[in-house]
Amino acid sequence: MDATLKGRAAVVTGSTSGIGLGVATALARAGAKVMLNGFGEPKEIDALRRRLEQEGGETVAYHPADLSKPAQAAQLIEDAEGALGRVDILVNNAGVQHVSPIESFPPEKWDLILALNLSSSFHTIRAALPGMRRRGWGRVINIASSHGLVASVDKAAYVAAKHGLIGLTKVVALETARTAITCNAICPGWVLTPLVQAQIDALAAREKLSVEEAKARLLGEKQPSLEFATPEQIGGLALFLCTEAAAQMRGASLSIDGGWTAQ
Ligand code: NAD
Q: Is the CB of 22 under 6 A from ligand 1?
């Protein structure tokens, strides 16, 4: 597998933590210039940026865009093209969760999750595709979820947004089918990140479990392997999607879920 990304530039949204950081690390180690994005302490983000540069990322920059705002999503791409000279790889990863039955689901949480987990990808793809078409190559990778393929209770906004993101992935794949630009979705199951730790802590508090018991319960309900997938594994698949071996993978939804959606 020729996984060198020397000369390529990537934007990874929501890459100050968790899965996005795993993907940004994999792309930087393969030699890509990377634009990080997401929230966090400026000092920690700067340390992260320098670490990734040392690990092989030729240039690692950071943009603080709040992607729940359409104008900032488009600005992120414009600024990345300015800072890195190009955007060849776009990884739409930023996302949040809220867990609640639909009758008590706060409408403002619905709006935020749809804006960030779905609409921001429309805005970044819309802004990034013209440059990819001009240069004749591109990779769009949308981080969906098992919840883009199947549902769970109490996750109305998240499940709706992730199903929508898989639909968007297919449309972009078709619209770019006769070019060297591909668009695919990765569908992780449980990955132990701050987004999932919050759900583990809530379960532990609600059911009076230890954190370890709550982790085991969470995995046991959904993930037959009983093991978390890791940000490194998601990064490995994203890197593969950037190679020539993946050039005819178009509009696919690729699960890394310990068997969750095989059931
Ligand atoms: P995380 O909380 O560790 O990371 C989320 C990232 O998004 C952070 O960098 C955060 O700063 C950023 N972010 C949050 N709001 C933002 C905003 N308004 N604008 C820009 N950036 C923002 O979460 P994670 O688990 O790594 O999740 C990353 C993606 O993977 C999400 O789309 C999530 O739905 C998806 N996912 C996660 C899991 C899992 O088990 N952790 C499973 C399937 C899919």
A: no
- Ligand 1 center to 131 CA (angstroms): 26
Tens of pLDDT, residue by residue over 72-85, are 999 999 999 999 99
Q: Please say if 62 is a catalytic residue.
A: no
Q: How far is the CA of 86 from the centre of ligand 1 (A)?
A: 24
pTM: 0.98
SS3 of 240, please? helix
Set out the domains of the chain in order of their start, with CATH numbers.
Answer: 9-189+229-254 (3.40.50.720), 190-228 (no CATH)
Site to substitute for ligand 1 among 52, 192, 193, most atoms within 8 A of C-beta: 193
Q: Rounded to whole angstroms, what are the CA distances from 86 to 127, 137, 220?
A: 12, 11, 44
Q: Among candidates 262, 154, 248, 250, which has minimal Cα distance to 199?
A: 154
Q: Give per-residue pLDDT as tens, 39-72.
A: 999 999 999 999 999 998 689 999 999 999 999 9
